[in-house]
Amino acid sequence: MDERAYFERLDSTASDPAELFEHFEQRSVGGRTTHVLPSARHGIERGTVILDAADAIVRGYPSIPRVLALDAGVTSFFESGESIFAEEKLDGFNVRVADVGDEGPLAFTRGGYVCPYTTARVRDLLDLGEFFATHPEMMLCAELIGPETPYTTHDYAEVDSDAIRVFDVRDRESAVPLAVSERRELCVRYDFPQPRLFGRYDRSEATEEIWSAIEELDADGREGVVMKTADSDSMVKYTTESKHHDELADAFSLPFDLGRDFVFSRITREVFQAAEFDESDERLRERAHDLGESILLPAVETVRRIESGETVGQRHRVRGGHDDIDALLDHLRDLSLTIEVEADYRENGQRVVEFLKVAESTVDRTTYYLEGGTYDE
Amino acid sequence: MDERAYFERLDSTASDPAELFEHFEQRSVGGRTTHVLPSARHGIERGTVILDAADAIVRGYPSIPRVLALDAGVTSFFESGESIFAEEKLDGFNVRVADVGDEGPLAFTRGGYVCPYTTARVRDLLDLGEFFATHPEMMLCAELIGPETPYTTHDYAEVDSDAIRVFDVRDRESAVPLAVSERRELCVRYDFPQPRLFGRYDRSEATEEIWSAIEELDADGREGVVMKTADSDSMVKYTTESKHHDELADAFSLPFDLGRDFVFSRITREVFQAAEFDESDERLRERAHDLGESILLPAVETVRRIESGETVGQRHRVRGGHDDIDALLDHLRDLSLTIEVEADYRENGQRVVEFLKVAESTVDRTTYYLEGGTYDE
């Protein structure tokens, strides 16, 4: 690979190619060689992929900063007089869809892998041919949502199995996004489903409007809001109480796999939201009780399940073509996950597979403690 | 210092003096030069101190392992037929008192520092002269408890200001403990107050007896139990729900100083205790609500205090001689703590000082978020 040429195209903050490319790792999957940046470096996003054979760059999706204090965050993050677009943030699996090489469009995960299952789903759910014929230089940034995905299982009233929402469209090589209005029109034109737009607000009214959106989303058990400048170049997120509690409940159903990493940050979000918006002691206490239940109840259930001999982990159901699902299971095993297939059948002409991603640490640590194992502090 | 000679005396698992002594650090405080092991290495306890001028070794107090599942822990930790002594574990400040050199007995902290305040307190509260005249090779392992100490503030009904409890007596150089009965008799002989002995149990009855002790301690807001073999050589601890919740409440009153490190381990203790002993859903939910309140309420209060301009931290009140208290404040500042003296007056012939250990991280991070600061995930 011509590092000098890619270095010029990537326009990073590194001072020479070696400084940047020492952080890339080469991966060969399914006859495809990629160079991937596994974590953000020198101004280049995590998951940025170089496909040398196609002479193509697919930039990673940037990490969206979060505010903990909504009103102060809105005021400090946006300029006075600037419009703030608020769109719904969905709880799903973030992929970038790009048409590189001659295999047809591919779905790249946050970590820079090509997911064969999501690739098949986006090809099925979106009319990509027409879009990429006109916009070969673009990538669609999309969320795979719904109860039947291999990664997330959050239920949306409007999604039976799975669905795609396009929330950003960017230049694949420079990562420059389309402006919000332009992107939303483009998605309408190509019939790409997109997340709800709550509105375009002046900074002075934004907190009130966004808090009201958050309350509505919270009541429906939905995740939160992304606020963007009109050019889509700056964005910041804010999430609901129910999202925090759901994440804690998921994490503490597998405490030694997810609990440790999740707990402090989610509690912190709760603390600042409560300090800003919980006006009565009663409201605050109710939030505290829900928080405690989110942490303790799933963890106790998991301990009891393991005690009775069950294997625990994350359960998923996926449906699609026979080979797409084989490719998915191979992909997950390549990522070193332990997969137990619990059901594999056909329904309405499709293959349906239910599987468990085994939570090895939770099973091992819990068993150790249940057998009387000690830990030293 | 003659490393070879100390190496032989320490009887570590290191293969040569260099391998062991590279982990020691030299400290000079108040004209006293010590070599201290800041964390456990090669079978030698954290806080082990060598005082070369006195040709003395003061071994650290070992970290006591903890069981999460009481019944399984008792069964796997102790041998069948072995007696198990259960003593109360107190919530205070652990020191070792040793008579080395010609300054009189000194109180060494867990980290291997000499605390001038605790030294003054143990000299005042215990009749050390007679003890060390007979047992110069021993060290007293003691807990400084009560609401008026510079380190902990836990209230005990029986302690007005502060008090000492001797819970172990060991050979200062080999760390070999006296047997439980022998130590308890010795403490009676020298009139050293000691923690409560719940009893001596056969392994088959221990869980039931200890759980009943835990329930009694929990109702009184006390910490827990240490179980020991008769020779005191093996020990394991188990703590109450109220202790877990109190610790979380303390930690989350200063979330960015203490919360992050404390939260996961305390939740884990709660989870296993609940899985073992919370028989009804109602009891489990009550524990969950208390857990949630312990986490959320103090943290929200702290955020609101910082928002209104207060400085937060740990508040302590100490009383003693004028110079002892000066030495304490110097000692704390030497440890890089930020100390704000809030009151300094005389009462019943003693100097009383109230001070705040400022929680710098909590003040800084909270202020940053309250001003709209973002974090990137």
TrEMBL record, chains A, B:
It comes from the Archaea. SUPFAM superfamilies: DNA ligase/mRNA capping enzyme, catalytic domain. Keywords: Ligase. Gene3D superfamilies: 3.30.1490.70, 3.30.70.2160, DNA ligase/mRNA capping enzyme. The keyword Hydrolase does not apply. GO terms for molecular function: ligase activity. Pfam families: Lig_C, RNA_ligase. The keyword Transferase does not apply. Transmembrane segments: none annotated. InterPro entries: Lig_Pab1020_C, RNA_ligase_dom_REL/Rnl2, RNA_ligase_Pab1020. Residues 83-239 form the RNA ligase domain. This is RNA ligase. It comes from Halobellus litoreus.
